Each structure stands twice: as structure tokens, then as C-alpha cells.
């Protein structure tokens, strides 16, 4: 690390501390030439590779903006969306790759969105997976019914189904 005071290119780390919920490190350094101390911050950068080949840093805000459209009119608040974006980022970072294809970001959104709200999930999946016919929707709905999630939008349906089941038996 180059000293900001004397421009010498050697320094030693005196102290390190995690910052930003563990996604970064704050280091206190001392220049081996002039002896002055300075602070540096290190964060790992997760780059998204777009279809065009261009790269850009991962943005939770872009995930939230995209998912917010699918959640329009649904009982989903900003905290839910922030948590979903955090889960997506954690999923992508868990692979240990510095660069991730944009397609993988969309795939990482699907599972937590399904848990959050199945209607929003279906909306998002229909655009993301380019549903072209009613059969595409019917197939996805059949999958949702076959393995219901336990997300917030599904809890009341599960209780209703149990109540209806107990009434008919």
C-alpha cells in the first residue's frame, strides 16, 4: 500500500477490524519509511457480467427495483425487499466467484421471492423465463401447488386448506 504522506510503497498492518456487517475490512497501517499511520478500507467487489460482456458492480438497489415491479400491489414492504436483496447477494458471494453472469442473478432471486410472495414470484418468473403461452403459466402454477412454500403469502392459504380439510372429514 502506498503511503499517502511520503508515497513510499511499503507499509505494515497495525490493526484490522471488520466493517459493514463483515463485508469489508478497515486496516490501520504504518509506513515503514516515514512512520506515519493511515487507514485503508478493503471490500470485496462482486462484478456482474451482462449479456453484452460489460461488467458492473453488484447492486442490491437494482435487485430491489426489479423485484419491486413484480411485487406491485402485493403485501410486501421495503424491509422484505431489502432482506431479499441481501439473501441474493449472500447466495452469489457464497460461490466464491468474483464475477457472476447476470443470468445467475435472476436465478438467485427466484427462490427467496417465491418464499416471500408466490404471486410476485409468478410475475417475475413469467418475465425472467419468457413465458410465451398459458401452458408455461399452468406448468409453473402446477409446480407451485406441488411444493407449496411457507412464505408470508402462503401461510393463510395453508391454514385455510387445513381448515377446509378438517371440515370435510
Describe this entry's structure for a reader.
It is a single chain. By secondary structure, the chain is α+β, with helices and mostly antiparallel strands. It has helices at residues 60-70, 78-94, 102-116, 118-128, 134-146, 152-168, and strands at residues 11-19, 24-31, 37-43, 47-49, 55-57, 99-101. A three-stranded antiparallel sheet has the order 1-2-3, with no helix packed on it. A three-stranded mixed sheet has the order 5-4-6. It is elongated and about 70 Å long. The relative contact order is 0.09. Mean pLDDT is 84; it is low at 153-169.
Descriptive key words:
single chain; 169 residues; alpha+beta; three-stranded antiparallel β-sheet; three-stranded mixed β-sheet; elongated; disordered C terminus
Rounded to an integer in angstroms, the radius of gyration calculated over CA atoms is 23 Å
Give the CA-based shape: elongated
Q: Could you list the spans in which at least 5 consecutive residues all have pLDDT below 50?
A: 153-169
Number of helices: 6
- Find the count of extended strands (DSSP E, 2+ residues): 6
Distance between the termini: 73 Å
Strand % is: 15-25%
Amino acid at each position: 500500500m502506498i503511503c499517502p504522506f511520503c508515497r513510499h510503497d511499503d507499509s505494515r498492518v497495525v490493526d484490522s477490524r471488520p466493517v459493514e456487517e463483515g463485508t469489508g475490512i478497515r486496516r490501520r497501517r504504518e509506513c515503514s519509511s516515514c512512520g506515519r499511520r493511515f487507514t485503508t478500507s478493503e471490500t470485496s467487489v462482486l462484478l456482474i457480467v451482462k449479456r453484452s460482456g460489460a461488467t458492473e458492480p453488484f447492486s442490491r438497489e437494482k435487485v430491489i427495483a426489479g423485484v419491486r415491479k413484480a411485487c406491485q400491489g402485493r403485501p410486501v414492504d421495503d424491509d422484505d425487499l431489502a432482506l431479499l436483496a441481501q439473501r441474493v447477494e449472500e447466495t452469489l458471494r457464497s460461490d466464491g466467484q468474483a464475477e457472476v453472469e447476470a443470468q445467475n442473478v435472476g436465478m438467485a432471486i427466484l427462490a427467496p421471492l417465491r418464499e416471500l410472495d408466490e404471486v410476485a414470484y409468478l410475475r417475475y418468473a413469467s418475465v425472467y423465463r419468457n413465458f410465451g403461452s398459458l401452458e408455461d403459466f399452468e406448468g409453473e402454477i402446477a409446480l407451485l401447488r406441488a411444493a407449496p412454500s411457507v412464505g408470508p403469502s402462503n401461510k393463510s392459504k395453508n391454514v385455510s386448506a387445513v381448515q377446509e380439510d378438517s371440515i370435510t372429514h
